[in-house]
Amino acid sequence: MARPSTTKNGTTAGRAASRGSNQTGVRAYNERLVMSLVRRHSGLAKAEIARRTGLSAQTVSVIMRALEKDGLLVRGAPVRGRVGQPSVPMHLDPEGAFSFGMKIGRRSADLVLMDFMGTVRAQLHEAFPYPTTGNMLRFIEKGVSTLGASLDARQRSRIAGVGLAMPFELWNWAEEVGAPAGAIEEWRSFDLMAEVAEILPYPVFLENDGTAACGAELAFGHGADHPDFLYLFIGSFVGGGIVLNNALYPGRTGNAGAIGSMPVPGPDGRPVQLIEAASIFVLERMLKAGGIDPSPLWLSPDDWSDFGAPLEQWIAGTAKSLAHAVVAASSVIDFPTVIIDGGFPVSVKTRIVEATAAALPDLDLQGIAAPRILAGGVGSNARAIGGASLPLFKRYLLDRNVLFKEVIED
């Protein structure tokens, strides 16, 4: 899901060992296996964990005692059955680990502090005309200090790292966001991971913002119920991700799910990229043309109540374009489900989902089974939450959902 992380001294932290030829590596893999299983099926007792993993009851007992001692697992209330000893369900301890996640967008940035269960404990938001490297570094340095101050000493010692979610090639589309010539060109040669690692004492991870949002949906949204889905996130520009067999599919170059590049019919019938038809910057242009202040799009993205007719037109046009993209994607991969989320109010998301589903039957679906269209379960913070999940998965969990055939017994 993520690129390698950069540590404080600039070294590269590779993928944590998922297997090992020595006892330490095997034990670490099994610990991550157990925590991943408990995260996915909270409330599992020792016997059920042993059954699902194929590990011996003794091995599971040793692992669970160690993880409980380390403050990563917590016991639930005993459940008494008809015979034998009561079973004790285990859960991830929300206080077991914390992480920061930052979304860098073309109009705004968000920083969240997240616990081990994926709950956002605190967050900061900042809007701007366009992103500069200096402003982003100042925002994250000050923000991490501010949010970290809400934790006590023990909690701060359990910060696993910082995950960054941002569009790749941020310097592109400068004209579309109204940036002066050359104002964001500095991003082309800027090593964000290394720069953030220089100012913060934590491991740093980086992922494309659409992929990070898709990862958040997989881990904390509807992912448990849908092993295969196309994910669409509508932000300043639309993006997305692909989940196959309960795992993110990055593709050969990491651009799988770059749905914004997909051609769809434009207003005059000629093809345009989806990014030019179903992005929030399109609504921004429409509001400006109608003499309406578009700043609430970025300053208060939970309230779009004053946008009137341009919002109605944008929702209709966005849904029509998304429907074309969904049909095209479904002709390549037989997606049973498409999940739509975005940086907008829940009411707007609901209307886009309903309008997209309603637009599908108007298209030629011969040879294609129309997928079910669902609203995302994570919401407008999906990109920042996806960023925050990167350190937790890299340090404690398995990137992919548990593959029991690959279990190694200590």
Q: Over the alpha carbons, how many angstroms does the gyration radius reach?
A: 22 Å
Low-confidence stretches: 1-21, 400-410
CATH hierarchy: architecture of the largest domain: 2-Layer Sandwich
Q: Biggest sheet, strands in spatial order?
A: 7-6-5-8-9
Give the CA-CA distance, first to last residue: 27 Å
CATH topology of the largest domain: Nucleotidyltransferase, domain 5
Tell me the fraction of residues in β-strands, as a range: 15-25%
- Work out the count of structural domains: 3
> What is the CATH class designation of the largest domain?
Alpha Beta
Helix count, DSSP H or I runs of 4 or more residues:
12
Shape: globular
Give me the CATH superfamily of the largest domain.
Answer: ATPase, nucleotide binding domain
User: What is the β-strand count?
Assistant: 16
Q: Which structural class is indicated by helix and strand composition? A: alpha/beta
Helix content: 25-40%
What is the element string, with H for helices and E for strands?
A: EEHHHEEEEEHHEHEHEEEEEHHHEHEH
Largest sheet: 5 strands, mixed
> Whole-number average pLDDT?
88
How does this structure look, described?
- This protein has a 5-stranded mixed beta sheet. The protein has a 5-stranded mixed beta sheet with strand order 12-11-10-15-16, with helices on both faces.
- It has helices spanning 23-40, 46-53, 57-69, 133-148, 153-156, 192-199, 209-220, 280-289, 296-299, 308-330, 346-359, 382-396; strands at residues 5-6, 12-13, 73-75, 90-92, 98-104, 108-115, 120-127, 159-166, 204-208, 229-234, 238-244, 247-248, 263-265, 271-273, 337-342, 372-375.
- The protein has 3 domains: 15-95, Winged helix-like DNA-binding domain superfamily/Winged helix DNA-binding domain (Arc Repressor Mutant, subunit A, Orthogonal Bundle); 97-212 and 384-394, 2-Layer Sandwich (Nucleotidyltransferase, domain 5); 225-377, Nucleotidyltransferase, domain 5 (2-Layer Sandwich), CATH 3.30.420.40.
- It has 12 helices and 16 strands.
- By secondary structure, the chain is α/β, with parallel strands linked by helices.
- The longest helix has 23 residues, at 308-330.
